[in-house]
Amino acid sequence: MGHATAYLKTRAWIEVDLKALEANWLLLKAKARGEVIPVLKAEAYGHGALPLARFLFQKGARWVAVATVSEGRTLREGGVEGEILLLGSLHPLEAEEVLRLNLLPTLSTLEAAQALAGRARALGLTPRAHLKVDTGMNRVGFPWEEAKDALLAVEALGIRVEGVYTHLATAGEDEAFVEVQRSRFQRVREALGEGYFYHLENSHGLLLHGGENVRVGLALYGLIPGFSLKPILRLLARPTLVKQLGPGDRVGYGGEYVARGGEWLLTLPVGYADGLPRGAVRFVKGPEGGLYPVAGRISMDQTTVLSPGPLPLEAVLEVLSPDFGPTGLCAWAEARGTIPYEVAVHLSRRFPRVYRYGEEVWEVLN
Ligand SMILES: *Cc1c(COP(=O)(O)O)cnc(C)c1O
């Protein structure tokens, strides 16, 4: 199992395969009848928002979406000039910065719309926004029955409403309710008329129901099995210590692993602070692809595993694999009793990251 970046003089690092990202992106674009908006919130679900934004704009994306103003600022400061949609509801206090950074905010309240219009007037800028409509999630958005009144009120403030959207609450879980939300959104669309950019589905919505204009996160990162999507991230680590255990030796906190004697133990410099869910990472992949069991508890910064024999400190082990097997992120999430989203967003920000396109290194972040 060779790794494109095994020459790196570092003990643990993350590799993101932009070619696999591109394949996922093309597959999703082929599924959607309209536009695909890549969702890069929470550091692109742990994959790194800035390099992915740069890459996707280069590959023809027309927008990206993030959740917060600070995420939008990070992209702007990194040189991203394309359209950045903020999925989080605009807070009135953020209106000025959103305008200065030329981010496209989402409006869920009239208070935020008034603040946006007011600050825009003061700055001499044109206020633009997307309108969020609540079709059943009851989290953010103007109630769908009042969408027309909301639109008129927002436009009366001088705001250019460029898009209107809603969010599915139960895609992949309750298909009947997806249909309820879709038909409500259709009625909104009929009431508001053409001339707006309407977008609706998320990853599961698109994959299970098809869609026109969609916002996708999880599927872009290949973290949904069964649709020919491929995970794009691997976490690699070299051992910092290799030794043979004696009979009765206990390993790690709580001394939970007790050696028979003769086992080879590798200590890897990755732990739960790096996003490895405690109790849910059972194996890592050895240099030849074999599964090495984790021995004892995962610490904050270190993990101990058993190997069939001694290894040099330069050896590269795959802690997280870009697949759906036992060292994949979906297996971690399942063992942890949570969703892949939650595990992905906790992936470490403290490792060097290599972004490669096939064998070609696109960008290295340290
Ligand atoms: C996060 C988010 C998405 C993307 O959801 P996935 O399930 O990852 O595709 C789409 N729309 C909104 C409003 C979101 O907050």
From TrEMBL:
Positions annotated as active site in the UniProt record: K41, Y253
A biological-process GO annotation: D-alanine biosynthetic process
Keywords from the named record: Isomerase, Pyridoxal phosphate
Entry annotated with the keyword Isomerase: yes
Molecular function GO terms recorded: alanine racemase activity; pyridoxal phosphate binding
Catalyzed chemical reaction(s): L-alanine = D-alanine
Location of N6-(pyridoxal phosphate)lysine modifications: K41
Listed EC numbers: 5.1.1.1
Cofactors named for this entry: pyridoxal 5'-phosphate
Alanine racemase C-terminal domain residues: 232-356
Binding site for substrate: R139, M300
GO cellular component: a single term: cytosol
Alphabetical list of CDD domains matching this protein: PLPDE_III_AR
Keyword Isomerase: yes
InterPro entries: Ala_racemase, Ala_racemase/Decarboxylase_C, Ala_racemase_C, Ala_racemase_N, PLP-binding_barrel
Pathway: Amino-acid biosynthesis; D-alanine biosynthesis; D-alanine from L-alanine: step 1/1
Cited function: Catalyzes the interconversion of L-alanine and D-alanine. May also act on other amino acids.
Family note: Belongs to the alanine racemase family.
HAMAP family in UniProt: Ala_racemase (MF_01201)
Name by which UniProt lists this protein: Alanine racemase
UniProt organism field: Thermus scotoductus
Gene: alr
